[in-house]
Structure formats: C-alpha cells, structure tokens
Amino acid sequence: VQLQASGGGLVQPGRSLRLSCAASGRRFWNNGMGWFRQASGMEREFVSGISWNSGSTGYADSVKGRFTISRDNAQNTLYLQMNSLKFEDTAVYYCAAARGSLFSKQPRDYTVWGHGTLVTVSS
After folding, report:
1. Which one, of 116, 35, 119, lies nearest residue 78 by Cα?
2. Mean pLDDT for back-to-back runs of 10 residues, the chain (123 residues)
3. Strand ranges (E), the chain
C-alpha cells in the first residue's frame, strides 16, 4: 500500500501549483484523505482534508480561500490546488489516508502516509 505525492516544485509568490497523490496497492475510496505539510524545523501541520465522498472538506485558516482539495475515487487520486502561494507555504507536503471515512486534523488519525513532495515559494 503506497501513496505517492507529486507536483511540488519551485514557484514564485502569487503563482499556483497543483499537487497530486496517487494511491497504489489498494483503493481508498471509502477513506477520508488529508494533506499535511512540514516546514523545516517545524512540526507537521494539517493543511486540508476531505471525506470519502467529497461531501465534507476542511482547511487550515492559513490556506482557506487559496487552496482547494478534491479527489477522484475512480482514479484513486487526491489533489490539492494551491493558488496565491506565499513564502510561508514553503514545506514538504504529505498526503495521507485516514482511518475512517471522514478526515481529521490530527496526524494520529491517519494510517497511510505518502513520502511527500517539496514546495518552495521563492522569488
């Protein structure tokens, strides 16, 4: 069972990136999914989450209105559209599958983690 995040890179402030998280080995259609990030020297923090059927989504206050989470259960893929990127969005971004069908803001509620993709916002 593996989650592979991709789509990170170097981007200027104000620009956009779209992260993807592809699952292999099993399907996660009935699991809540989340995006977390970890900046250098900081703890891992919740960015966004989505329930199994996309009926419920949540965002950290720092990204609300700029980031959009979505999922395609048929493709077993999770996305994070990041617009109006800021310097402080620089971090390694991780996708994760929750234990249940809803998402959580707590890392301990996620049982499968991807390896992360680096997003660097710099001018």
Report:
1. 35
2. 92 98 89 97 97 96 98 95 98 97 97 95 97
3. 2-6, 9-11, 17-24, 33-38, 45-50, 57-59, 67-72, 77-82, 91-98, 110-113, 117-121
CA distance 77 to 85: 22
SS3 88: helix
Rounded distance, CA 36 to CA 59, Å? Answer: 10
- What is the identity of the amino acid at 106? Q
What is the C-alpha to C-alpha distance for residues 24 and 52, in angstroms, rounded to an integer?
17
Token pair belonging to 62: 């720092």
- Looking from the CA of 26 toward its CB, the CA atoms found within 13 Å total 7
